[in-house]
Every structure is written in structure tokens, then in C-alpha cells.
Write a structure and sequence with these properties.
two-stranded parallel sheet; about 15% strand; 9 helices; 15 strands; 2 domains; alpha/beta; about 350 residues; 7-stranded mixed beta sheet; Aspartate Aminotransferase, domain 2; Aspartate Aminotransferase, domain 1
């Protein structure tokens, strides 16, 4: 078997040691004579995995006692609806910083059940090509919360600062860059992230909730959708996707073994520098549409001189064993998703291929 280099945006590549570990104990989890998939979500075998996963999150992100790690389903898309339903009172509005397709969807969902407003935008000439600065944000001090998307997979932009929102709880969709670098969790009221990019397989969503905010969950909301229910039930109020949590645990172990969030940041910046260096060294062939200060270290995007060349580039890359580089259908171009699990050596191989392609096309 020959594994390809997978640049897909999500579900994304996972660390090979994590896959091999799961493979080795798939049929017999820790000598129990059955797969973890077959164990009860309330049994002792899974309980150890559940607790260790939460502990690893606490250690790797230095999560304070004021916050709790929760597991839900439905991905970030479910949280687009559940955040306002749980955190916004009927008479309140909520602020949204707009930086791409996912923040657009989050605001749209919030408007279905109440008031929400745009509190800043990274749109220039109709396209999201930058991150607004703190001074450009128009924040409401009476808002229920302020929401932003830390990394924008489609647009290739990323926040490199934490918005200051005063007493208003800050809510962050970190689906595509959680654990790519250290963060100060105490600055957030809620962090949520679908696992399928940086943490594990699709099927589980991680929430890091400031516990006092669970009190906002209204009694009019069905219990299964209340943050207060999830918090009180330790995320076990229904049958949790146990194998997805198990895989997240394995990824977190791998991150810990490599040195934690700081090591991930060094690793990710090294990979991003390779790609952006290639782009900037050959501006006549490669062009990054993103403002330099807003470039993502998770999803570098770029264009070639023509769409025909891009199609050829994608096809030849696939032939060379590098897949998933086609840009999102809404923007086109090339997108290289280089999440934590992507090896620097694989990015080096891609850059060598791209440079050779540019030389040949020129």
C-alpha cells in the first residue's frame, strides 16, 4: 500500500502513528476481547478514554477550572444554531465578525431565532481577503456574545490576534485551527471545533465552555440541545460517538508526545513558510490573494496564471501522489490544507513539485 499526501480541508489527514495504533487494537481494545466501538458509552473501558481525552485537552490548552470540555455532535454547523439558542436572551442581539463562508453561515443561522448583527468584516471589493483589525470592529457592549471564526479554510485567512470584547463573552469557531498553537482559554466564553481537521475523524464536536454560561440555556429549548444538559451529563446524556472520541484521544497523545501546542505552532509555521516562500519567490507564476498579515498557517491558498494551468497542476500533483489541493468551488485556485498532522517533509515534497511545475510551464 502506498499512502498519498492528503491536503484535503476536512475530513483531513491524520497522523500515521495514530492510525497504526488504532489499527493494532481495533479488534481487541486493551485486552477486553472486543473493539472499543462495541463497548458501552457508560462502561468502564470507554469511561477511561472519555476522561483521558478531557484531561489531555486541559493539559495541552491549559484550560482553567472555570471552563469545561464537552462533546457534542453536528459539527460547527449545529453550533451555528445552538450558540444563539443557548447564549442569547430574547431581547438581546449578538455580534458577528465576518471573514468568510463559515461566519456568513453562522450569522445567517443566528438571525433565524433572534437579532444578530455584523460587527466587522474582512471583505474587500466583494471578496474576503483579509482579517479586520481590532480598531475596525464595531462591537456592541450590550451584545449577548461576540462571535468570530479564527481560521477560514476556504479563504485562506486567519486571525493572529484575539479580539478584545470587554465584558461581552467571546465565542470562537476554531474548527480548522484548534491546537495549531497555544491559546489563552480564559479569554473565551465558548470555543467550539469540529474534530475532522485538526483533532480526529468527523462525528464529534469539541466545546470548551465557561461553565457559568450554561446557566443561560433556556427551559424553552429542548433538553438535548441545552449546554446545561451537556454539562450536567458529562457529555453522556445520549450515546456518544465513542470511536471518534477515542481517535481524538489518540491524536492528543500524539500532540503531547511531540511537545504540545508550542511544538505544533513551530511545526505549522515551518510548513506555512515553505509554501508562502515558494509563492513570494515566484510572483510571476504564483499569486496569493490574501493580505500578507492575514495569511493562514493552516490553509495557504494561491492562484496560477490561468485556470487551465491550475487544472493541469492539480492533475499532475495527483499523479505524483498529492491529492486534495483543488480550491473550494466558490473561489477556485489551489488550497493546501496543512493541519497539525501534515508532515513538514510532505510539504517540502509538494513545494519541490510546484517549483518544478512552474519552471516547466515557464
Amino acid at each position: 500500500m502506498t499512502r498519498v499526501i492528503n491536503f484535503s480541508a476536512g475530513p483531513a489527514t491524520l497522523p500515521l502513528p495514530v492510525l497504526e495504533y488504532a489499527h493494532d487494537e481495533f479488534l481487541d481494545f486493551e485486552g477486553t476481547g472486543m473493539s472499543l466501538i462495541e463497548h458501552s458509552h457508560r462502561g468502564a473501558a470507554y469511561a477511561k478514554v472519555h476522561e483521558e481525552t478531557k484531561v489531555l485537552f486541559r493539559e495541552l490548552l491549559d484550560i482553567p477550572d472555570t471552563h469545561e470540555v464537552l462533546f457534542m455532535q453536528g459539527g460547527a454547523s449545529a453550533q451555528f444554531a445552538l450558540v444563539p439558542m443557548n447564549l442569547r436572551a430574547p431581547a438581546q442581539s449578538a455580534d458577528y465578525v465576518m471573514t468568510g463562508a463559515w461566519s456568513d453561515k453562522a450569522l445567517s443561522e443566528a438571525k433565524i431565532t433572534g437579532d444578530a448583527r455584523e460587527a466587522g468584516t474582512g471583505k474587500v471589493d466583494g471578496k474576503y481577503t483579509r482579517i479586520p483589525t481590532q480598531s475596525e470592529l464595531d462591537l456592541d457592549e450590550n451584545a449577548a456574545y461576540a462571535h468570530y471564526t479564527t481560521n477560514n479554510t476556504i479563504m485562506g485567512t486567519q486571525f493572529h490576534y484575539v479580539p478584545q470584547t470587554g465584558e461581552v463573552p467571546l465565542v470562537a469557531d476554531m474548527s480548522s485551527d484548534i491546537l495549531c498553537r497555544p491559546i489563552d482559554v480564559s479569554k473565551y466564553g465558548l470555543i467550539y471545533a469540529g474534530a475532522q481537521k485538526n483533532l480526529g475523524p468527523a462525528g464529534i464536536t469539541i466545546l470548551i465552555l465557561r461553565k457559568d454560561l450554561a446557566d443561560r440555556s433556556p427551559d424553552t429549548l429542548p433538553k438535548i440541545f441545552r449546554y446545561s444538559t451537556i454539562l450536567a451529563g458529562d457529555s453522556l446524556q445520549n450515546t456518544i460517538p465513542t470511536f471518534a472520541v477515542y481517535m481524538v484521544r489518540n491524536v492528543l497523545r500524539w500532540v503531547q508526545d511531540l511537545g504540545g501546542a508550542s511544538a505544533m505552532e513551530r511545526r505549522n509555521r515551518e510548513k506555512a513558510d515553505l509554501i508562502y516562500g515558494m509563492i513570494d519567490e515566484n510572483p510571476d507564476f504564483f499569486r496569493c490573494p490574501v493580505e500578507r498579515e492575514s495569511r493562514s498557517i493552516m490553509n495557504p491558498v494561491f492562484r496560477l496564471p490561468t485556470e487551465e494551468l491550475e487544472k493541469t497542476f492539480i492533475a499532475e500533483a495527483a499523479h505524483a501522489g498529492m491529492v486534495g489541493i483543488k480550491g473550494h468551488r466558490s473561489v477556485g485556485g489551489i488550497r493546501t490544507s496543512i493541519y497539525n498532522a501534515m508532515e513538514p517533509s510532505d510539504v517540502e515534497r509538494f513545494v519541490d513539485f510546484a517549483k518544478a511545475f512552474a519552471k516547466g510551464a515557464g
